[in-house]
Structures are given as structure tokens and as C-alpha cells.
Design goal:
single chain; 401 residues; alpha+beta; Heat Shock Protein 90; 12 helices
């Protein structure tokens, strides 16, 4: 019921103000007829009507737009009624009470205090100094102080309640926007991660397939007996690429969690398989290990494998050499991967400007590691990655094989 009335009052403010002004004018006139027992009734009808009309017209026109002016006018009209000898009853004070309530709902507490004190002083002084009827001092001082304080306190409570509801709504909207931004941020991160994974898979296998196809075409006339083995390796390379692409794209098509288990993500245990694939493409890879091998977390193991894979792909595509070296150095709390070559081709140019080195650096940073790539003083190119054995748990582990 209260909500319906508030909705109606908000949608029909002018109608509500008109009805309030009429009722308050009637209350002012009725209050002017109330007197104390054996007290002389003032006979000032026209001034009383004028004071009541001015107060109610001010409420009708300006109570929402000019609450300060309305409060001052109604206070002056009530004080004028008191000076005529009318008893300060709640009915006579009603226009000023509504003006104070509206002032309290629309302005700050300091303003309400000033206007309350000023209105009370004007009404009380008028009743004490100008009232021709000897009314009790309590009716001149205590009664108006109490009745005028009530709408001021009530209006302030309504204003605070509205401000609280507005703040709650704003916080809810801010939280909703924050959740939407966080969701968009996560979607963007996932898109970047999947794009990086697809780039590593496609670039590596297509580079090997291209190299194997070129080698087969070169040997087709001079050493045809070797072509069959190279074509077999080429078929294995493309099959491996299709399997990894199918697994990656399959994750994108899933609407929710799949009940089927995912294939294990590649790691450094598949380094021998990677070097054999590179050898069929004409790139001999030498792998060496320093220190005792340590178990790696799935995220670090996948990151290390993908970085070595991309580095060897760049060697095959850009270095202009047929040999590369991979060195694994295990420390107490980290593992260092180094991929070097002695090529004389533009290794750093296209590789540094493309997405290969960018993706490797992003992978290393996501695990809390670091990557450095550049030309070697003695010639060739080198990629060095340092990864922690136990990365911080904040970055999400990659599940795409």
C-alpha cells in the first residue's frame, strides 16, 4: 500500500500538491478557531484568510522547486496568525510543518537546522511579544518547538533513506559493471591463450611439413628411394597437427565440461619425438641436460615444451641452418631452457617481428618466468627461458593439448 501511494505521488505530483494545499488551508482556518477555555476569540477573519491563502499558495507553487522561500513565507504567515491572537496548534502550524518536511527532504541537514531555528524564533517571538490573548507560555514556546521539530526530523530520515537506497543501487550497478568487465577480460585472456596455442601448433607442424615436402621434391630425382620415408614422416606430421587441432577446436565447441577425458598435454617428455620430427625436415637438433632432472608442474611442462617447439620452428623457418642445440639446465627452484643455432639467415628479423617470440614471452610471463631472445656475439640466434619449478597458483593452467 505504501509503495502504491509513493508511486502515485511520484507520477501525479501536481495533483498531490493541490490536494495538500487545499487540506492545509482548511486546517489553518479550522485551527484559527480553536481557543483556550474562557479565552477571547480574535475577530480578524480577513487577515487570517490572507495568511492561510499565502502560505498554501506558496506550498502549491514552490514547495518542490524553492523549499527555502516556501519555508520563509509559511513561517511568516504562521507568525502573523499568532500575532492576531490565534493559538499555535498543530493545525495552525501545518503549512509550516509541511514546508519544513519538504526542506528536510531536499536540502542538507545544516540548512534544515538554520531554517528550523529561524522559523521557530519568528513564531515564538511573535507569540510571546505580539499575541493579544494571554495564552500559556507552554503553548507559545514548547508546543511549536516540538511540532516543528517533528517534520524536520522525519524529512531528514526520509532523505537519508533515499540516499542510502541510491548508494545501494549505485554499488549494485558498479558491481554488475565490474562483473561484466571481469567476464570480458577473462574472455579476452582465453581468446589470447587459444590463439597462442593454435599458433604454436599450426606454425610448428606446417613449418615441418613444408620443409619435409621441399626435401622430398628435391630428392625426387636424385635419391628417389629416400622420398618414401620422407613422405611417411610428412604424413605423420600432418596427422599430429590434425590431432592437436581437433583437440583444441573441440574444447572451443564444448558448451560445458566434457565427461570425456582430455588427452595429456605435451611436455618435455616428448622432446625426443619433437627432435625426430625436426630431423625429418632437415634440422638436426642436439639436446643436452645439466643438473638432475626435476619434476615440473603441468603448466610449466607445457610452457617449456611449447617454447622449445616454437624456437625450433623459428630456426627451421628463418635461420638458414641445418643444426640447432637445446640445453636444459635444472637449478634448485628453476629450469633454464636455451635454444641456439649458428645460422646466418635473418633469424631475428621476421621472428622478432611476428607472433612467435611474442607468444613465447607471454607463455614465460604467465608462469612467472622470463624470456630473452637475440643475436649471439659469435653468430647465430639464441632463445633463453627461465621458468620456476613451482609457479604461483594465480595463472590458470592450460589444458589444451
Amino acid at each position: 500500500m505504501s509503495t502504491q501511494w509513493q508511486r502515485y505521488a511520484g507520477e501525479h505530483a501536481r495533483t498531490v500538491d493541490t490536494m495538500s494545499a487545499v487540506l492545509l488551508f482548511a486546517a489553518f482556518l479550522f485551527g484559527s478557531e480553536i481557543t483556550m477555555p474562557r479565552a477571547e476569540q480574535p475577530d480578524e477573519t480577513l487577515p487570517t484568510l490572507a495568511y492561510g491563502a499565502v502560505a498554501c499558495v506558496a506550498l502549491l507553487l514552490w514547495q518542490r522547486s524553492r523549499p527555502r522561500t516556501t519555508t520563509a513565507l509559511t513561517a511568516a504567515c504562521v507568525a502573523g496568525g499568532s500575532a492576531l491572537g490565534h493559538l499555535l496548534t498543530p493545525l495552525l502550524l501545518a503549512p509550516l510543518m509541511l514546508a519544513l518536511y519538504r526542506l528536510a527532504t531536499l536540502t542538507r541537514r545544516r540548512t534544515v537546522r538554520r531554517y528550523y531555528a529561524g522559523s521557530l524564533a519568528l513564531v515564538v517571538l511573535s507569540a510571546v511579544l505580539l499575541d493579544p490573548v494571554p495564552h500559556p507560555w507552554a503553548m507559545k514556546v514548547v508546543s511549536p518547538a516540538a511540532w516543528l521539530l517533528l517534520p524536520a526530523v522525519l524529512g531528514n530520515a526520509v532523505r537519508l533513506s533515499r540516499a542510502y537506497l541510491t548508494a545501494v543501487q549505485q554499488r549494485a550497478e558498479f558491481a554488475e559493471r565490474g562483473r561484466e568487465e571481469e567476464a570480458r577480460h577473462r574472455v579476452t585472456e582465453e581468446r589470447v591463450r587459444i590463439a597462442r596455442e593454435l599458433h604454436d601448433v599450426v606454425a610448428h607442424h606446417l613449418a615441418l611439413a613444408n620443409a619435409q615436402a621441399g626435401t622430398a621434391a628435391h630428392l625426387a630425382r636424385t635419391h628417389p628411394q629416400q622420398v618414401a620415408g620422407i613422405l611417411t614422416d610428412l604424413s605423420g606430421t600432418t596427422s599430429s597437427a590434425l590431432r592437436e587441432l581437433k583437440a583444441t577446436v573441440g574444447l572451443l565447441r564444448q558448451a560445458g565440461e566434457s565427461e570425456a577425458p582430455l588427452a595429456p598435454a605435451p611436455g618435455l617428455d616428448r622432446l625426443a619425438e619433437l627432435t625426430r620430427a625436426c630431423a625429418t625436415a632437415g634440422l638436426d637438433v642436439e639436446v643436452s641436460t645439466e643438473g638432475a632432472p626435476r619434476p615440473l608442474s603441468p603448466g610449466v611442462d607445457l610452457t617449456a615444451y611449447r617454447i622449445v617447439q616454437e624456437a625450433l620452428t623459428n630456426v627451421a623457418k628463418h635461420a638458414g641452418t641445418r643444426a640447432a642445440r637445446v640445453r636444459l639446465r635444472y637449478g634448485r627452484d628453476h629450469v633454464t631452457l636455451t635454444v641456439t643455432d649458428d645460422g646466418t639467415g635473418p633469424a631475428a628479423g621476421p621472428a622478432a617481428q611476428g607472433f612467435g617470440l611474442i607468444g613465447m614471452r607471454e607463455r614465460a610471463l604467465s608462469m612467472g618466468g622470463a624470456l630473452h631472445a637475440g643475436h649471439r656475439p659469435e653468430g647465430g640466434f639464441e632463445v633463453t627461458t627461465r621458468l620456476p619449478l613451482y609457479p604461483a597458483p594465480t595463472p590458470p593452467q592450460e589444458r589444451t593439448p
